[in-house]
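2024-03-11 09:14:02 DEBUG pipeline.ingest accepted 1 chain
2024-03-11 09:14:02 DEBUG pipeline.ingest length=161
2024-03-11 09:14:03 DEBUG pipeline.predict start
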Amino acid sequence: MQPRTVANLSTSDAAYLAGLIDGEGTIALSRRHARDNRQLVVTISTTESVLVDWALRTIRVGKITSKKPAALHHAPGFTYVISNRQALALLKQVMPFLKSYKAHRARLVLDNYLNVTPRNGKYSLQTRTARAEFEGKFAATSIRKKASSLPEPVPPTATPG
């Protein structure tokens, strides 16, 4: 069975999604279980279900999770989640429009993730070392770093459309 693929986004949809990721989202390397390798995850979290519903309909892959409010005066939360190679395909399309430090994270992922993530999950010593180095660089690229200390992201060669 073929995995579902990310939709080809229009320029305006890619730009809008980039804005949602910049403002309400994350680009992260996350573990599902303590001993697992970290995997690429892109999320958009909001209390507006219409936004994550639109993201899922537009991208055509991923999932939405919900969180019950902790107190009566809190609104319920919703998170759109896409991971691994589907997240990579999404980042390829939204990268030209990202403006925050997340542009640097996206560029780092696009340039390195596939090289340090064997599809069969079997890591050689060389790949493990490269993976650890990549994860270190990724973690160092955060909002806590001054934007002026980060290099300008290199735009991709093709734009979505």
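2024-03-11 09:14:41 DEBUG pipeline.report Helices lie at 11-24, 49-59, 84-94, 101-112, 125-140.
2024-03-11 09:14:41 DEBUG pipeline.predict end
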